[in-house]
Specification:
12% strand; six-stranded antiparallel β-sheet; 36% helix; 14 helices; 497 residues; two-stranded antiparallel ribbon; alpha+beta
């Protein structure tokens, strides 16, 4: 009916055609027929244009409803749900506004993780080539001066001329605006981090380096950097006048992963650690930086360490020392450490395969030729339990009941058929909270959330793809540990921190 309204002026033309055979057309009829033909062409073009416009608008609406997170504009909202069947990977804000990373079964490439939109830094940076060339020789000269000293309290300032050049360039406005490498885009960090953890992480990652100091004690000597000084610091903080961080070797990246695993499992026994780049150290490569705790370095180092042989350690486990706050007998052989602390240490060390505490002689696995225990001949002592020392056991000087996990050198390249089960020997209970995380199958999700905060570490491990490979190792060991728990009837108990 709609098209017939446009065709009624052309009825005379149709009438002429019907009478075409009876008589020839006049000049007037030819003019009228031509006008009608032009009119029909015009109407047809208008109808086609309107139909094409409606189709384009329909396609636009469809695309607007089906576009994903990668096409979000700054004012767009993040979707509240995830399509698990299609394997889409989004960051979903939860009740605590924490950036969560969901999983997909098969990843052909790292997921695009996005929690907010940063402003682009368009300010050009002027490079100081003279400073770079000056530091190379200075770093070489400084490293030759690293030598152990007789007391941990002996410290000296390390003269990094390049450090002063950096400070000068910052004052002259030549350095680019600083963007924190700790990525907390929501109002709160993940719930396993305390406010003190977040403060320490931000300091370690972003603090302006005021001074580099070398502190000797054990081998190798500690290299610390100092931030802004504090007004009230005790005498035992003489080495570090303010907040400080211990700079470790770039190859010891397990220290950062260990910190996040410790917090996710609810053990809370490691010191905060982040990955950071120093232009004046290690050719600018990222290296772990651990929070400095002066209570672990008192004037008398013996007061903050536990000295036990393997035999004494096993006997103390049977005594269940300090459990329920019951003081052990003087001849029980108990140390100052609470019984539950050994269970936390054993679980933590097994997942990361850290053997330099409970098994520094490598008695529980097949070591490689380059391992320290092989080079020093410690494996020869494995048959004599009373001569094997339990090492690197630390507690704070004012808190002798709780352990502090330091020097967390783990191994991700150890297969499941060569795990060190000696670390679990004598353990009859394990922390319930940590085991529940392993059983919940949410360990990967929580570790991804946690490690994503440290951008420097995340990128140094190859992004999402590299982090997933590390978590794969921990998940496989967690399955082995759960099987071990069921096979040996190990109980899980609530262990108060």
């Amino acid at each position: 009916m709609g098209k017939s309204r446009f065709l009624w002026p052309c009825f005379p033309f149709l009438n002429l055609i019907s009478r075409f055979r009876r008589r020839p057309l006049s000049k007037r009829s030819l003019i009228l027929a031509t006008v009608c033909l032009v009119y029909l062409v015009f109407v047809a073009s208008q109808v086609g244009h309107s139909q094409q416009h409606r189709n384009r608008r329909t396609d636009g609406d469809k695309n607007r409803h089906t576009r994903g997170l990668d096409h979000l504009e700054p004012n767009d909202a993040v979707p509240d749900s995830v399509d698990l069947q299609t394997g889409a990977s989004f960051m979903v804000p939860t009740r605590s506004n924490v950036v969560y990373i969901t999983l997909k079964t098969k990843r052909l490439k790292p997921a695009h993780i996005r929690g907010t939109i940063r402003p682009k830094l368009r300010r050009k940076v002027k490079r100081n080539k003279a400073a770079n060339s000056t530091f190379t020789q200075e770093e070489h000269d400084t490293k030759r001066n690293f030598a152990p000293k007789s007391s941990w309290a002996e410290a000296k300032d390390v003269d990094y001329k390049y450090l002063h050049l950096i400070q000068k360039s910052q004052n002259n406005g030549l350095a680019e605006p600083h963007v924190s490498s700790i990525r907390i885009y929501s109002q709160k960090a993940p719930p396993w981090f305390s406010a003190q953890d977040v403060t320490a992480m931000r300091f370690l990652a972003d603090a302006k380096v005021l001074r580099i100091r070398e502190v000797s004690g054990e081998l190798p000597p500690l290299l610390i950097f100092e931030g802004e000084p504090q007004l009230n610091h005790s005498k035992r903080n003489a080495v570090c006048g303010g907040q400080c961080g211990i700079i470790t070797n770039p190859v010891d990246t397990t220290e950062v992963f260990a910190f996040h695993l410790d917090r996710v499992l609810g053990l809370n026994r490691t010191l905060p650690a982040v990955s950071r780049k120093f232009s004046f150290l290690h050719d600018g490569r990222p290296c772990p930086v651990v929070s400095w705790d002066s209570s672990l370095y008192p004037e008398d180092p013996a007061s903050s360490t536990v000295s036990l042989t393997w035999g004494e350690y096993q006997r103390s486990l049977k005594q269940r020392c300090w459990l329920r706050n019951i003081s052990p007998k003087p001849d029980s052989g108990c140390s100052t450490i609470h019984h539950n602390e050994w269970s936390k240490l054993a679980l933590f060390d097994f997942l990361l395969q850290i053997h330099n505490r409970l098994d520094q002689s490598c008695c529980g696995f097949r070591p490689r030729q380059e391992d320290v225990c092989v080079g020093l001949g410690r494996r020869a002592l494995c048959g004599d339990q009373d001569h094997i020392q339990v090492a690197n056991i630390f507690h704070r000087n004012h808190d002798p009941r709780h352990l502090v996990f330091t020097n967390n050198k783990g191994f991700f390249d150890r297969n499941e058929d060569n795990l060190d089960f000696r670390l679990l020997e004598g353990i009859k209970e394990l922390p319930e909270q940590a085991v529940s995380v392993l059983r919940s199958k949410k360990l990967r999700e929580k570790l991804l959330q946690s490690l994503f905060l440290d951008q420097t570490y995340w990128e140094s491990q190859g992004g999402r793809q590299g982090i997933d490979k590390l978590i794969d190792v921990i998940e496989r060991r967690a399955k082995v540990l759960l099987t071990y728990i069921n096979a040996h009837g190990i109980k899980t108990t609530a262990m108060v921190a």
